[in-house]
Amino acid sequence: MRKILSKISLVAIVLSTMLVGMPVGASGVAVTLTPNSSSSSPTDVTIAWTGSAIIPSGNTVTITAAGAGTITFSSGTPATVDLDGDATPDGTLTSTSTNSATYTLSAPTTLLTNSLELSVAFPAGAYSYSIAVFVSGIADFGAALFYANGSNQVSVTATVPATLSLAITPGTDVETLTNSCNLGTLTTAASSTCSYRLLIGTNAASGFQATIAANADLNYSGSATITQVVDNAASNPGNAEQYGIEVYGATTGGRVAGGAYTGAVTENNPTGYTFGTDTSPVPTSTQNFISYNDAFDRSNATLAKSTLVKHFANITSGTPAGSYSQTVTYYVTATY
Length: 336
Prior knowledge:
By secondary structure, the protein is mainly beta. The chain has two domains: 25-148, Sandwich (Immunoglobulin-like), CATH 2.60.40; 164-334, no CATH class. 5% of the residues lie in helices and 39% in strands. The protein is built from one helix and 24 strands. β10 (128-135) and β11 (140-148) form a beta hairpin. The longest helix is centred in the N-terminal third of the chain and has 18 residues, at 2-19. The model is unreliable at 1-24 (pLDDT under 50).
C-alpha cells in the first residue's frame, strides 16, 4: 500500500512540474501567415489567429521568431492599430527587437478574430522560421512557419541526353544492317532493282535533315557510265540507258501536336531532283534528301518508320560491258 501511495505521489510531482509556467486557461490557437513565404526581404506579413476570448486593455501580444537565421520585426505598412478588425483602435506596436515584437492594447478587443501586420526582415539563406504568438491575460498561444528563400521547396532536375541515329537496313526488314545494294547482272529485257531502308531517329525538338551525295555516276573503271535518268521520267527498259532512284518516305514516326508519333517524313525536292515516288537521278553533289521538323521515333522499328530507297538500272545493247559501281553517302543532321 505504501509503495502504491509513493508512486501516486511521484506522478503528482511530475505533473505539477510539467504545468509550471502554463497559465490557467491557456488555449492553443491556429496561426496563419499571409504570405507564409518570400524571397524578398523585408516582406510585410499578416499574422492572424482566432482567440479564445477578447483581449483586455493593457495586455500584450508577443510575437517571437525562431530559426537558423535571425528575424528582425518592425511595423508593417500600414501600422496595425485595429487588432480585431472592428474599426476601432485597439493598441500599437510598442517594441521590436531581434526575433521579437510586442503589441500593447490600449483598449479591449470586441471580436475574437485578430490580425497583426509586421514587416519581416530575414537574411539570405533558405531557412524556415517558427513565428509564435502569445497573448497575455487570456494566454492564447500558437505558431506557424514562415519559409524564407524557398526553404520549403525542392528543385528537381534531370538531363535528357541528345540522341540521333541512322541505320541502313535491307529493303525487306529493319533489323539487319547492310551497306550494299546489288543490282545484279543488267539486261535489256527488264529493269534491275535493289533497295535498302534508312531508319532515322532523334529527340531533337526541331527534327533532322538528311542529305544524299554519290561519289560519281554509276561507272565502270571511271570511264564508262550509265546515263542518269531525267528527273521524273518513266523507267523505260530496253529502249533507253537509265539509272536512278525512287524514294518512299517513312509514313509514321514523327512527333505531331498532342505528342503522338504519327507524322510522315518530308521528301525534299531540290532543283533538278524530285525525291518522291517518281524517278530521280542520283546526285553527285550534296542535296537535301528527307527531313522532319520535330522529334522522330525509331524505337520498335517498323517498315513504316523507315524510308525505302530503290535503285534501278536499264541498259541498251550498246552499254559497255564491265563491273559498274558508285558509293552513295547519307548524312543526317539534327537541330536541337
